[in-house]
Design a protein that fits this description.
Layout: E1 6-15, E2 18-28, E3 33-37, H1 44-51, E4 59-64, E5 67-68, H2 74-79, H3 82-86, E6 87-90, H4 102-113, H5 121-134, H6 151-163, E7 169-173, H7 181-196, E8 200-204, H8 208-214, E9 217-222, E10 231-236, H9 238-243, H10 245-250
Parallel strand pairs: 3-8, 3-9, 6-7, 7-8
Antiparallel strand pairs: 1-2, 1-4, 4-5, 9-10
Helix pairs in contact: 4-5, 4-6, 5-6, 7-8
Length: 264
Amino acid sequence: MSGSRLEARGLRLVRGERELVRDIDVVAEPGRITVLVGPSGCGKTTILKALALLEPIQGGSIELDGRALHTLSEREVRREGLRGHVLAYVFQSHALFDDLLVRDNLLWALDQRQRGDRLSRGEAARRAADAARRAGLPAELLARPVADLSGGERKRVAIARALILDPQVMLYDEPTAGLDPPRARAIDRLLLELRDQGLSSIVATHDLESVVRLADEVLYVHKASPSEPGRVALRGDLCELREHPLGRDFFADSLIRFPPGTHP
């Protein structure tokens, strides 16, 4: 598996008469994790959905390995399987079918993306088992209903469902939300393993410990006022984030231990 370079420049998104974000530049590169941080409502999820081609943009560009995606029609996006097969979005809410088995959730994703000749049942089952393994799911969980799983297990199923399509870019929306610290750390370790396999990743999160564990680059999205659009106010590594007034405020009163060299 290898990732691709996903690059957005000057993104602008508008909903109705409200401008959500403006002048957003963000890059995902193979073997690296870019983390979007900022207060609630600043536009992190909006940016992530735009990158996954789930939200139309009203300005700027989105390119994958130099190829423009923002100019493609909906028909072209669907025909090429860009959503899911190339750009995988892991929802904060998991977006799983609770009444189905874990295996059937994975196979559903595979079935939705197949074009032309369908995979044999054996090959489909092999891919489901492989995706579950890569997401750290025990094989026996494949035969359990999603409704019976813990929050951490559901997170892994959502990630496995994305991995079954062999994507090039992973886009995670609050991957540790609602988890206790040990399970959050386990999910972060999984994301690092996938990064080390060469995937390109962008993570939107409020989890300060995850920021420290995951970020190769941090983008701080900020709104000057509630009526203003979100913008990237800071771009850099953890050291630069800690030295910036917004970053100091973001980590205020936290007890997080930073790696050596990241303190101002």
